[in-house]
Amino acid sequence: MKVTILGSGTNIHPTRAAAGYLFQTDRPILLDFGPRTLSNLLQTGVDRHTIQHLLFTHYHADHFSDFIPFFFDAVCYSRFVTVRPGLSILGPPGTKRLFRTIFRTFPNFSDAPFPVTLKEVQGRSFAIGETRVTPWPMTHSDQQICLGYRLEYQGRSVAFSGDAVASPHLISLCRNVDLAILDCSFAASQPGGAHMHAEECGKVAREAGVKRLVLSHFYQAADRSNVVTQARRFFSGPILKGKDLLSLTV
């Protein structure tokens, strides 16, 4: 399994795209699609028209907004070049209502020349090709149901927290995974709400028995701190500070 970070920041970060991750198993799977991640996807060399599965953790704009140009491009490509394969969009409760509204509202979105399926997932695992995907509810915002995802392929596993605070659900999601990518929005010296800081990421990784930890989803204040050192106070395994276009083989 190959994982490429398309965006390791959040909102309008001066040097990082917002949240987005590309998983390559027997097929490409895109997880979240924040602003500027589409440009980074183009740099990976993966043909965007072969991507048939989009997973969303939640619908704050920093995890979602590049879907709009991606989909418009897919419609235009299918009309004027060649019809691309269908597209499956999976996310938390509320996914169907949101996307049906988008498709009704944006010009040319409602009559895409390829099939689009919408599925709301939470708590029950499912397969995408040979990849087993388990979505699990995280604690983030009172207004947004946010999911974390665990992907398992050929005996390897990756957990992605999405936006989350430390919780038993997050520890269960990450239990014994080969790689955990965790929301590290803040430095331990400047904690904030609805997200984890670096020390909390270290604690989650230790309690879950994670083999390797990647910190990601940085606000600028976290970028100015040594978040790896802070996480290492509680987790002794390998730790990486995520960056855009970092690729990892699991």
Molecular structure report:
- The chain is about 25% helix and about 30% strand.
- It is of the alpha/beta class.
- It has one domain (about 1-250): Metallo-beta-lactamase, Chain A.
- The chain has a seven-stranded mixed β-sheet. Strands 7-8-9-10-11-12-13 form a seven-stranded mixed β-sheet.
- Strand 4, helix 2 (about 65-80) and strand 5 form a beta-alpha-beta unit.
- The chain is globular, with a radius of gyration of 17 Å.
- The protein starts with a strand and ends with a strand.
- The model has no long low-confidence stretch (mean pLDDT about 95).
Q: Please work out how many helical segments DSSP would assign.
A: 7
Give the CA-CA distance, first to last residue: 5 Å
Going across the biggest sheet, name each strand in turn: 6-5-4-3-2-1-14
**CATH superfamily grouping:** Ribonuclease Z/Hydroxyacylglutathione hydrolase-like
| CATH fold topology | Metallo-beta-lactamase, Chain A
Q: Describe the largest sheet.
A: 7 strands, mixed
Low-confidence segments: none
- Give the tally of β-strands: 14
**Share of helix among residues?**
10-25%
